[in-house]
Amino acid sequence: MLIGTILLKITPIHAKAELGYWIGTSYWGQGYCTEAAIAIMKYGFLELELNRIYATHFKSNLASGRIMQKIGMNYEGCYRQHIKKWGKFEDLELYGILKSEWLNWQPSVTVFLY
Ligand SMILES: CC(C)(COP(=O)(O)OP(=O)(O)OC[C@H]1O[C@@H](n2cnc3c(N)ncnc32)[C@H](O)[C@@H]1OP(=O)(O)O)[C@@H](O)C(=O)NCCC(=O)NCCS
User: Fold this and answer.
1) Quick check: CB of 62 below 6 Å from ligand 1?
2) Do 51 and 98 touch, CB atoms closer than 8 A?
3) What's the whole-model pTM score?
4) Which pLDDT value is given to residue 106?
5) Which of 23, 95, 111 is the pocket-test mutation for ligand 1 (most atoms within 8 Å of CB)?
6) What is the pLDDT of residue 51?
């Protein structure tokens, strides 16, 4: 059963990708997105040989930001009023991690990778 999706939007020439995800509301708060994000980052760095993975979230979306922190990404700054949503300009927070940083990163949460 599909409960969510996770993706890497790859820019091959720069060996980088943007991480994106959503989980169905019935399944929030059970660590699924964190687990999937850790798995896809491993795939991105080791199999796809990416150098950088980054992600953005609306300032108000604290759960999404928390995932970026839990998977070892670093806060890189704010795209101010980057998106116009429902007639209102919204800030986007930017997080990222380099392969060299990821290789030395240890998850602080228990994850099972298949
Ligand atoms: C964001 C989203 C993917 C999270 O999925 P999830 O499977 O519930 O995430 P996890 O359970 O792995 O982790 C969520 C973390 O956010 C925290 N969190 C949840 N709501 C929060 C809030 N309002 N403020 C701060 N932290 C919050 C949880 O406590 C958890 O952190 P913890 O493990 O340290 O306790 C899900 O809510 C979603 O699909 N939202 C709609 C789509 C979306 O926002 N996509 C991302 C766009 S940038």
Assistant:
1) yes
2) yes
3) 0.94
4) 83
5) 23
6) 98
CATH match of 4-102 with 3.40.630.30: yes
How far is 1 from 50, CA to CA, in rounded Å? 30
Q: Token digits for 6?
A: 């996770």
Which tokens go with 60? 């108000």
The residue nearest atom 26 of ligand 1, judged by CA position, is 63
DSSP assignment of 41-52:
HHIIIIIS--SE
- The rounded average pLDDT for each run of 10 residues, N- to C-terminus, in the chain (114 residues) is 97 98 98 96 97 97 97 98 97 98 82 55
pLDDT at 107: 76
- Ligand 1 centroid to residue 105 C-alpha, Å: 21
- Do the Cβ atoms of 69 and 95 come closer than 8 Å? yes
